[in-house]
Write a structure and sequence with these properties.
heterodimer, A: alpha/beta, Elongation Factor Tu (Ef-tu), domain 3, Rossmann fold, Dihydroorotate dehydrogenase B (pyrk subunit), domain 3, 3 domains, seven-stranded antiparallel sheet, seven-stranded mixed sheet, 16 strands, globular, B: alpha/beta, TIM Barrel, eight-stranded parallel sheet, four-stranded antiparallel sheet, 10 helices, 33% helix, 20% strand
Amino acid sequence: MIQDTNWKILSNEALTEYVWQMRLAGDTTGMHPGQFVEISLPGLFLRRPISICDSSDGVLTIVYKVVGKGTLAMTNLMLGQELKILAPLGNGYDLDAAGDAPLLVGGGVGVPPMYMLAKTLREKGKHVNVILGFNTASEVFYAEKFQALGCQVTITTADGTMGVQGFVTNALPDKISYFYACGPLPMLRALCSATEADGEMSFEERMGCGFGVCMGCSIQTKNGNKRVCKDGPVFKKGEVNE
Amino acid sequence: MNNRLETKLSDIVLQNPVIPASGTFGFGKEMSELYDLNMLGGISFKGTTRDARYGNQLPRIAECGGYGMINAVGLQNPGVEHVIANELPDLAAKYAGVIIANVSGFSIDDYQYSCAALDKQESVKILEVNISCPNVHNGGMAFGTSPEAAAEVTRAVKAVTQKPVYMKLSPNVTDIVAIAKSCEEAGADGLCLINTVLGMRIDLRRRKPVIANRYGGYSGPGIFPLALRMVNQVAHATHLPIIGCGGITTAEDVIEMMMAGASAIEVGAANLVNPMVCPQIVADLPRVMDELKIEQLSDIIGIV
């Protein structure tokens, strides 16, 4: 059930030069890995859609990249301040599809939604392979958090300053039962063609409402027009026309 | 006890003046998961065309500071036959109030075809004919920017329906009064104004328009004064009932719009940022009326 409620900021700090983490206290009931929230920000009309990085016991963690006015405004928010948040939104990942050797791939700011997914799959006793792709070592975040969950973590950097040099597709394991991915479109395309395995990916679009009424984020798929906010943000491999 | 919020459009009674505007409410399915639609005075459903449309390329949405947003969806809809077979029965099963069918087209034939089909639907109480969509080429707004074309669409639609016809007008004109009067003379039963204001945002880093369609319709609180002025001008120049639309966000805005001349109002962009805004406005109206010593909402229509 979608709710519009007030959340109190517990922490708000930079993880890298442009990527920030915010923790908020509120009602986390019903939040599922791969879903997102819409945050109301002072001085802006539209809410900002941000993926759920983690949610448990009344604490929501979001990790966001500063890319425009909205996310820049978020970095200036103070501890204790309250934000109106519409949540949970979107479909989320299909956990039943994981199989025995799921691979999670996050590229840049596509890494955060993989965290709650990895945690949930680890709780189900799965062996989880994670590939985190970044441009350069200074942009890397969350690697140790995935390791702490007991995931097999590989880092790739385009310039080779950390981990495997190249892209996430340079580090694919031999066995993949199913993959889950979030990141830039070129990464998602490359991943789909680099593995025979089935999988699903979360997409990002400029949104109006976030709950399916405005058609602002509608994309064309093999199964007709789909709203990224309501029918997605997670779509199966092969479903989305590229 | 009489209902203080009751109002009328033509001979149709609305339990309150609050109607979600077309394009901000889909066909009611998503919102019905959040609240009981039956508390709404009316529902204007997603702009429907003869054939199914995907609409414009993405991005379709742009932020406009705290004042509103720009959209260029481009009338994405499943087509009138699909709407009649699927969306309309679903909506009618959930909602017993006044269903307003919003119709758009690219030719006179298109408008007639869709309106004739919707005329046969008992659950549709009013046809709201959109001659003001700024986001499609060779249609929509082209009919709403000249008095002659607006009259031609009005006459064509009136010829194929018994239902009240409300023409939805564009603010992107030199003289909205001339167009309103032209619709009145052509037999319109009412008017709905305003649609969105043609606008633009530029992505400074990319040096390109934010919206793939380049321009789009600006809506939200920033257009409220403009909408209010146009409703007031048209209210003084015609005898038609008016659905006032444009930037309404609060119960106070509703009262202001009704004082300006609207018999009912539509809430648009506000639905997208606060899905509960319509029920909140309905719940808040009696308090604001008490404050302003308004006994019956219909008493204030067009008093300014």
